Every structure is written in C-alpha cells, then in structure tokens.
Records
---
Amino acid sequence: MSPPVLVRPRPVHRAADLLAAYLPGSFYYSSARGSLLADGVHATVRAHHGTRAHAAAEVLDAAAAAGLVEPVVTGAIGFRPDSETSLVVPAVVRRAGAPTADADAPPASWSTSWSITPKPESAGYADAVRRALALIDDGELRKIVLARCLELTADGPVPVPSLLARLVRADPAAQAFAVDVSAPGDPAPRTLVGASPELLVSRHGGEVVANPLAGSLPRVADEAENRRRIAALLSSEKDRAEHAHVRTQVAEVLGRFCVDLAVPTEPVVIGTPTMWHLSTRITGRVANPADPGSSALALAEALHPTPAVCGVPTARARTAIADLESEDRGYYAGLVGWTDLYGDGEWSVTIRSAEVCGRTVRLFAGAGIVAGSDPSAELAETSAKFRTLLRALGLEGAVA
Ligand SMILES: C=C(O[C@H]1C=CC=C(C(=O)O)[C@@H]1O)C(=O)O
C-alpha cells in the first residue's frame, strides 16, 4: 500500500536549467503544470497491456523500500496493445516549474540537406481515407483516425536536445517530451520527442483532469481568417460529431474511477502555434486514491486508445487502422508521461511527435474521419499537424 500524501516536495530547479540539462538518454517532460528531468535507471517496469499500472506500483514501492527518495515511473507506451513500451524508475529525478517562452532556443536548422519520403504518398493517404469512408457508409465504423508518416534523413546526426528546446520554446504550454526508446537492433540511440497539445489524463492529489481534443483546422498567419476558422470549427456539424465521440468515451471511462465528474457539453477552441482544435476539459476526483488501480497510469491505460487516435468502435477501428495504414505507428498515438509513488502523475497522447535515430526522423500525423470527411481536407490537416515538428527542424514549408 502506498503511503499517504502529507508534504509534497517543492520544485528546486529552474525550468530553463532542466531543459538545458537534457541529454539523449534522459527523460524530459514538461507542461503548463511543471517540468521533470530524469536520469539513470534504478529499475525497469516489465509488464504487458492492462497490467502496467500494478507492475509500476510494485516497482515504485520496492524502489521506496530500497531508499530511493520520491521514486517515479517515467516513459512511453506504444499505440498497439502489444507494441513497444519503455517504462523505468529513473535513478535521479529533478523537478521545476512550467517552462516559459523566453527559454533559450538554438538556431533553426543544423542540416544543409534533407531527404523527405512521405509514407504513403499523398494520393495513397487520400485513398485510405476514401476506403475508411466506405467502412463508415457500411455502418462498420462511426469514426477512425488515419495517420501517415514522413521519413526524413539529414546529412548528419539530428541533435535531439536542440530539437526539444525548439519545441518547448515554440509552445511552452504543450506537453513536451523526450524519451529514450532505444531497442535492440537500433543502429543508434532512438528518442521519442514531441510537443503534444493533448493531455490524456493528469492526477494530482486525487484531482483528475483529461483534455480530449478532436476536430481541427490549420492555424494561419492572418488573424481575421483565424477568427473565421474558430467560428467555423465551433459550428461545424462534422467536427462536433468527431469531437463528441472522444468526449463521450473519455467521460465514460473516467466515470468508472471518479466521483464529481464534470463534463462540459459544449467544446471550446484551443490554439497551438500551428492548429486550432475543439477541446473539452473534463475534471473529477478519484473515488479511491490509495488504490494502485486508480493511479494516473491506470487511468491512462484504461483511457487508451481514445477516439482521438483510434476510433469508434475501438476494436473495429484498430483492425481497420492495421489494414489501411502502411506504416507501423510505433510510439505514435500511444502515451507518454510519468506516475509517482502516490498514484499521481501526468500522461499525454503521443502526437505531434517523432522518433529520432541518428540521421533519421520518422514523424506521424493523423486525422479523424467521420461521415462527411473530405479526403483532401484530411490530407491538408495532416500536413498542418506535421508543422509542429517540421518548424522545430527548420523545415517548415518543405511538405505540401
Ligand atoms: C491524431 C492527431 O491529432 C488528434 C488530436 C487532435 C485533433 C485531431 C483531429 O482533429 O483529427 C486528432 O484526433 C495527430 O496530431 O496526429
């Protein structure tokens, strides 16, 4: 049984210092609620889908018994139930407040030439959207999120610390992360890096927040046009339906764990530097905070995959994704974050992300397809979503 929360440690570092101290192999996670930098491996959490929260609680209890102060489990879990997982109890954890926009950002591009390979080509993606729409017409699916991949190769190793710093600087409120996800056989260390706008779930002292997003339009430079887009999103039947699937499922799952669940019936629009999204902030309190089955990781596992990355019904959407997408998603559309000894923690949806390995960067972006979706608009939406990473790589405009 985990000890009760009495006094929580206060951050003793500056957010900018934590970001500057990040090195490949470390775990970094920051959001509007604070920053965390972790190094070394005290223990590894080995468990499969559905048992990770209990395994994490056991490993955390053992770490505390062994004298580790305030142990935390950090890491990432891939999209598929059987996909890769990287969960560890780090040896050293440093915390700080939320990052700010004035953090130092390194220069734009460090590679003089890149090769860019879309997988599939644009026409192939549009075709997959048409096939998904046929499944929706047939009544097999109500929603499916279809993703595509860009494989970039630079003329030298991609410096992950600079990429991470540029992502944080561009959007300090995002859930930014860098996680070592190296696997046997990788030609170089592999890092999952990104700046997700979507909080899957956070739990602090028993207070739970989830912030599902779905229904999107690209952000542009012209503010009048942006105002039109915000109004268009709020009134779009198609986008509201796409969003409602996610809100309903997240609320239903959290309802199994929480009391005082508050689920707004009307979405609002949130902006990232590159996108506008319909957003619903759902709050509640865990009914049984001491139960490891209600930890932040347990809630995250129960929620995953939400219809923001998979579809409705979930099982049919998963098989359709396997049939219609050409590339394995790996860690994309999974979850990334941390959970502590008390069951608190924060997990975000692994989107606006890439896996960096040596000179190669694989990035994914997806779009929710519902009745009424237009293949060319969904293709454009995925291109706009790639801009988060492409901008940070100094490559904005490189992909139509
Ligand atoms: C699947 C992604 O975004 C999700 C989150 C926000 C809006 C979404 C949408 O409108 O389709 C997606 O559900 C992605 O960025 O790859």
Note: Residues 34 and 97 are 4 Å apart (CA to CA).
---
Amino acid sequence: MIQFEALAKRYGSYDAVKPLTLTVPRGEMFGFLGPNGAGKTTTIRMMMGILVPSSGRVLIDGLDCQQDAAAVKQRVGYLPDNPVFYDFLRGREILQFVAEMHGFSRREARERSAQMLAHWGLDDVSEEFAVNYSMGMKKKLGLACAMIHDPAVLILDEPINGLDPRASRDVQERLIAAAAGGKTIFVSTHLLDMAEKMCDRVGIIHRGALAATGTLDEIRAQLAASGSLEDVFLMLTDDTDETTP
Ligand SMILES: Nc1ncnc2c1ncn2[C@@H]1O[C@H](COP(=O)(O)OP(=O)(O)OP(=O)(O)O)[C@@H](O)[C@H]1O
C-alpha cells in the first residue's frame, strides 16, 4: 500500500507538488497522469528518496520513504524516466550487478538475470553493451532491473514513452501480467490510452495539484462529463480561461 500524506515539494516560491494526499491499495495499478511539468517526476523522486519533501510524507507498506529509504528500496522496483546504464557493461552484467546490490549471491544473481533476460525477451542481446541498446531494449532492461528482486511494489516513470507500437504493447502486456500477479503498480504517464487500458484507477495532476482521482467512470461522474479519458484529461488540464501562469 502507498500512502501520501500531504506530500509537497516547493522550489523557492514555486509549488512543484502541492500537498498530495492519496492512498493506493495493495494490488492496484494506479495511473499518475498529468501534462508536462505537472509534478509527476518530482512526486516519484520523493517516493524513491531522491528528493526531500518540503513537507508531508509518503509511506510504502507503512515505511517512510525518507526515514526508511533502504527498507523501502528492498520492496520497491523503480524505473526512472530516463534509465541510464554503465556503458561498459553488457545487459546481462548490469542485471547481475543490480541483483548483487540487492544482496543475492553471485549464483542467485546469475540465475535471476537469466530469468529476467528471458522474461523480457532480451536473450539475444544479453551480451551486447547496453549503450548500443535501442530505446525499447533500454526500457525493458530498466524494467528487468526494477523487477529482479521480485518487489511487491513497482514505481514506473513513463515506462512506455518513446516505444514503438510493438514494444509498447509488449511492455503493457507484461505490466498487466505483473499486476495480475498481485503487484502494486504506481505508473506515471501522459499516454492516456495506456492508462485507460491498464489502470484500475487514475489520478490527474495539474500544476502540482491533484485535480481528480478515481476510476474513469468515477471521474466522469464527478465532472458530470462523458467521453474518453482524453476528453476528461483535456477538460481538467485546460488553462485557456486562466490568467495566472
Ligand atoms: N530543481 C528544480 N528547481 C526548480 N523547479 C523545478 C526543479 N525540478 C523541477 N522543477 C519544476 O517543477 C515542475 C514539475 O516538474 P516535473 O519534472 O515533476 O514534471 P512532470 O510532470 O514529470 O513533467 P514531464 O511530463 O514533462 O516529465 C516543473 O515546472 C519543473 O520545471
């Protein structure tokens, strides 16, 4: 379970994330949606202990993401928005390294890496240097790294962004399977068709504030709106009537 308790981040006088209170129950796939600059990555970086909140806190399975950062990382798999790998390591070596960082023995790390390479369809490129991977392969390698320790919770920043349609569908199917296997998944995206297809509930963040939360039907009912998630998203994030920047 993920609990946001008035989590906020301020840069000078600019509120990148306004106090965010939200609960994502165990086993849910929650879509965190918002336009560019809305505050998605800032929120996720606070969940991962990379950024210190200005106020409030976020708990994962009861553990504070700042105070208990090491314990949180044991139960969380994280895909950054732009995964970066050591250029001089091969795909297989990167996975083994990550597994060993999680405390697995060399033999276990080798076995887990082999399983993940097979699961993500990276067998054929396992001996290639990661720097030569395509964007799709890098995302899959990043997801394999995120899942190598079989975490209960996945926090994924734009997992589909930049992928071609085949790679995108492939990743989505694997994430749906992970959710069906009981993982809690918090996924940020601005790709609304993906969110509509995969997520149990979504939250729409706009200018650092949560503008709506719920299933698509619930959000439609709140807004007395009809139409697709895209219609609802555009309605909630429409700035044309506002005079402030
Ligand atoms: N270090 C910083 N100092 C000042 N402002 C920042 C800093 N980091 C982020 N911001 C601002 O905070 C806001 C939220 O940024 P964030 O990266 O969280 O947005 P996002 O929703 O992830 O956007 P995108 O979809 O474009 O990645 C943006 O206006 C951004 O310019």
Note: The chain has a mean pLDDT of 90.
